[in-house]
Amino acid sequence: MATDTPFPETAPKRGSGAKRTRKAAFHLGGIALSLIVTLLGLIAITFFIGRVVPIDPALAVVGDRAPKAVYEAARVQLGLDKPLIVQFVNYVKAVATGDLGMSVSTGRPVLQDLKEVFPATLEMATLGILIGIALGVPMGVHAAARQGSWTDQIIRVVGLAGYAIPAFWLGLVGLAVFYARLQWVDGPGRVDIAYDGLVTPVTGLMLVDSLLAGETDIFFNAIGHLVLPASILGFFSLAYIARMTRSFMLDQLNQEYITTARVKGLPERVVLWRHAFRPILVPLITVCALSYAALLEGSVMIETIFSWPGIGNYLTVALLNADMAAVLGATLLIGMVFIFINKLSDALYDVLDPRAR
């Protein structure tokens, strides 16, 4: 008599769903614990470095001519009279609630300052890394495919130039040539003074906010100011990405499966991009992620030269004014960006590499 009961070998295993759920929960818990430990370590390093540098936060607040009683009152208000470990615990509690202290330079909460300056750096670094990836990856693949040719030599020289040329020199030359001489781009700043303050900040990204406001004139003016500093940052990331792509591709092109693909008569374009390029995607993601993070935290010199109101310029002013609350807050934000980008690249590994899953 026929029944609807499935055969034992085809019946689903009991508890398999619960086991997968527990495994996923443990995985997420491990990620959360790793994030917490990393953030605590970052906060600790940032805090203790800020305490060992020869800068007195209380003196920066009251000035070097303030009476001793005023100076001592400032130390008590800032909590500097307490033991170092107590200061660290109080700092962790404050950071957990979003309190990064008050900036001496601006007289405002550091968190509010960072919300205003970080989008400017994010906008410039994002365009820079897009330029670096769009040009650096094809250049690296092209150089590896034609190893030893004159094009390979030129691309390698470009890569070396990206490491050797100082950022401040290239920025000054770019302003002198493309802005002052040829007038192809606009000068320092994010927009012209006439447009400053006309767009209500929504995302903090000038290109996005100007489009949302329907201000096309401000949008194109912002592009004119952004293209040169972003291109300079893109050149430095391009040099690194092209060199690493070339190195990864050379390793793949020497594998036997590439020789087999060529013997089968596959077009060289298919061999390069479908067979040799796909295996290097995972390490290339790490290269691009590190390059992007470096642009976010390493654009101090470019922002200073171009008067770009980003986190690099903010950090420079804070250091010059001995504004330790702003310095610690900006450093902490940069470290958190590194952590986020690393975790994002790890997540992309699972998508692109089945072995990671």
Automatic annotation (TrEMBL):
Keywords for this protein: Cell membrane, Membrane, Transmembrane, Transmembrane helix, Transport
Transmembrane in keyword set: yes
Domain ABC transmembrane type-1 residue range list: 118-345
Domain of life: Bacteria
Record-linked Pfam families: BPD_transp_1 (PF00528), BPD_transp_1_N (PF19300)
Predominant subcellular localization, coarse grouping: membrane
Family recorded in the similarity comment: Belongs to the binding-protein-dependent transport system permease family.
Protein name: Peptide/nickel transport system permease protein
Native species: Rhizobium aquaticum
Organism taxonomic ancestry: Bacteria, Pseudomonadati, Pseudomonadota, Alphaproteobacteria, Hyphomicrobiales
